Amino acid sequence: MQRYPFVLSANLHGGELVVTYPFDMTRTYWKAQELTPTPDDGVFRWLATVYATSNLAMASEERRLCHYDDFARLGNIINGANWHTVPGSMNDFSYLHTNCFEITVELSCDKFPHASELPEEWENNRESLLLYMEQVGS
After folding, report:
1. Of residues 61, 102, 106, 121, which has the active-site annotation?
2. For residue 104, what are the β-bridge partners?
3. Has 120 been annotated as catalytic?
4. Start-to-end CA span in the chain (Å)
5. Eight-class DSSP state of 23
6. 3-state DSSP call for residue 72?
7. CATH for 8-135, options being 3.40.50.1820, 3.30.420.10, 3.40.630.10, 3.30.420.40
8. What are phi and psi of 64, to 5 degrees?
9. 58-87: pLDDT as tens digits
10. Is 0.90 topped by the overall pTM?
11. Which of 21, 34, 71, 73 is most buried, by CB atoms within 10 Å?
12. pLDDT by residue (tens digit) across 36-65?
């Protein structure tokens, strides 16, 4: 990433339905959760919102909670460190060391979906991924 100047990136995880954005590490060492916006917080919130609002699973009115956090009330986006701190995250590295705007997409409640569920996961995320990539030109 330092050699080739990407401007937009996403890393894909499973286990929740939410989009997180930097910063992922709290500023206060002993806090497990703390809002830590970047100077580009508005841009990151926009990018996360583009993904979350076009994701079929996240946008569904019939969606269920994955665990105990109700991310739907937050628009299915959250500042990473305000959810849980992740020292040395890829989001933070990309932003701080390469000038690439990166988000984390938690794609599914299931951390390891069965192969039979992958077509549905693709349908849930296809449009979101395309719209997210289109933001490069915005």
Report:
1. 106
2. 11, 20
3. no
4. 21
5. -
6. helix
7. 3.40.630.10
8. -105, 165
9. 999 888 889 888 999 999 999 999 999 988
10. yes
11. 21
12. 999 999 999 999 999 999 999 999 988 888
